[in-house]
Specification:
Elements (H helix, E strand, L loop, with lengths): L7 H4 L2 H23 L4 H18 L6 H5 L1
């Protein structure tokens, strides 16, 4: 189980929703680049690292196991 970073109330705030939408769009863009471009090994690793960091950020909005039980 992970500890919640944001409360359910904070997750409904317009600022979080705007940031979430921005990073979801950025994630889609980076995934398309990863799928379509022929990149070298280092460039691919960098791109995948950026994807991983965005997914980590978006995970802030994922309910914890404890919240799922409610």
């Amino acid at each position: 189980m992970k500890n919640p970073i944001l409360t359910p109330h904070e997750l409904a705030e317009p600022t979080w929703l705007k940031l979430k939408k921005h990073y979801e769009n950025r994630l889609d863009e980076l995934r398309r680049q990863n799928d379509s471009e022929k990149l070298g090994e280092i460039e691919t690793a960098r791109l995948r690292g950026r994807i991983k960091e965005i997914k980590f950020f978006l995970d802030i909005g994922t309910p914890t196991d404890e919240e799922d039980e409610d």
